[in-house]
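sry for the spam today, last one i promise. struct tokens for design, 200 residues
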């Protein structure tokens, strides 16, 4: 656990070290989202903890901001075609949803208190640029605080085994790279924070 910039540095360094050590030992370390078609993919879950200087708990509004912008940001959290082979299967999220202690949701709130209290975003994969991912999540969360957004009701059920009448109420994440590109292209939120060259 560390501040966002240090966490991004650590993530990049970790991947470089693992790949280097693998290569030195005659192996190949893959950080692709779905290296084995029949096996669970590789995620890069992001855990976020908030500490307010004034002591107020704004975590719900912060999370609501992330959920509000998640479809637009998905292209940068899941940047390659293979990313979408991972999402929606074998414990990877498929819907814009959250719940306490539920690993089938996009965001899980672990059952911890105090300084270890956090939200876990489960959609990003290791192909994502951690600097972009963390920045966009922070901006989305701050937007939720600025707009005083409220969280939707938790989806307190297993989305992989739930009947259609429950899952049909949930908004799905983009299912393909093209769908994620379209959501990003139309996003005023992303255009506010990213250079125009990203959209070109």
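last one done:
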């Amino acid at each position: 656990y560390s501040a966002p910039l240090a966490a991004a540095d650590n993530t990049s360094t970790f991947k470089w070290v693992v790949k280097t050590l693998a290569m030195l030992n005659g192996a190949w370390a893959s950080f692709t989202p779905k290296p084995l078609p029949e096996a669970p993919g590789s995620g890069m879950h992001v855990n976020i903890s908030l500490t307010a200087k004034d002591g107020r708990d704004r975590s719900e509004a912060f999370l609501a901001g992330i959920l509000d912008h998640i479809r637009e940001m998905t292209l940068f959290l899941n940047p390659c075609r293979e990313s979408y082979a991972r999402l929606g299967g074998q414990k990877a999220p498929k819907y814009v949803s959250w719940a306490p202690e539920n690993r089938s949701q996009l965001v899980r709130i672990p059952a911890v208190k105090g300084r270890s209290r956090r939200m876990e975003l489960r959609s990003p994969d290791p192909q994502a640029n951690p600097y972009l991912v963390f920045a966009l999540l922070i901006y989305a969360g701050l937007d939720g605080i600025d707009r005083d957004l409220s969280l939707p009701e938790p989806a307190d059920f297993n989305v992989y085994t739930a009947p259609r009448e429950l899952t049909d109420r949930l908004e799905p994440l983009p299912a393909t790279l093209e769908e994620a590109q379209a959501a990003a292209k139309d996003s005023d939120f992303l255009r506010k924070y990213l250079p125009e060259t990203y959209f070109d």
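The CA atoms of residues 80 and 110 lie 29 Å apart. ok im logging off now
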